[in-house]
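Issue 218. Parser rejects a valid record. Input:
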Amino acid sequence: MFYDPMISKVVTHGASRDEAIEEMIDALDSYAIRGVRHNLSILRDVLNHPRFREGNISTNFLAEEYPKGFDGHLLTESETNELAVTAAMLEARRLQRVANALYDDYFKTRSTEEDDSLKPFRLVAVVNGKHVPVTYYGNDGTRFYIGDKEMDVTLFDDTEADLPEGAVENPEMMNDFSTATPPEYGIDLIGVDPRIVFTINGRKTAFQVVDRKGTQWSLQHCGTVYDVNVLSPTEADAAARLPAKSTDAGMKKLLAPLTGKIVSVSAKPGDKAGEDEALAVLEAMKMQDVLRSPGDFTVKQVFCEPDQVVQEGDILIEFE
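Output the parser choked on:
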């Protein structure tokens, strides 16, 4: 079934437009939405756009400012470092808990009364293919370095983080980020607030823990979910030497990014399609998404037509 769901409407106010926008950004960062697709990421990006902040907008705003669509927030260097530090802290705390259970002296939690010569955790967080070296001192939980640059990290806690009824204890995950000795067991994310708010170098910064698979943490930051793999320096060096995976096979098919209705199709078998050339238009969530060629290809077969309802992941066009 194709339908247009609305999760909620959000209204904020402030003494000025900028203040109201900051309140809205904070509200969107506080949303924990799971199980359904949503447009929170682009809404947050629009709020930070200079034209929107100035109030210089029209009904053509999205077409003018996002002509190729929206693929998620583009991280700045400082935002990349914030994401790397958070993922490294999560992984280091996980390693500490595992080591406590195994009585491993290297990672075992140490008393805060010991001196600062404690052996640090040296990790590498891989963010969007970029290797970010992070040094984490586990004795107080707040000392981090990106290379030789110190990052001042403090937990921002203005709420009572009580354990909800029915939450399940699970040593695989942890939702307690206090600077005291980490608990022997963490808390499963099911039924527990996944939001983490820090002040990093004096700036309030929000994250959400979405998932973890092995050493890869899925974290929501600036409205977009990023997969951050946290490795030891040796593992990161070995991973960097591996040949890149070929994406040619996946690029030869154009898939429906969302469930919706096809508005128009301009591609025909035999057509030459240049990279980023518009081939079809999909309507979903009251918005029209222009579907473009992922590369320079020849159209082999078209599997969709106007007014056809398609499901997310359906093959729309195949290339030679």
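Fixed in the parser; the record now loads. Helices lie at 17-30, 40-47, 50-54, 61-65, 77-102, 233-240, 248-251.
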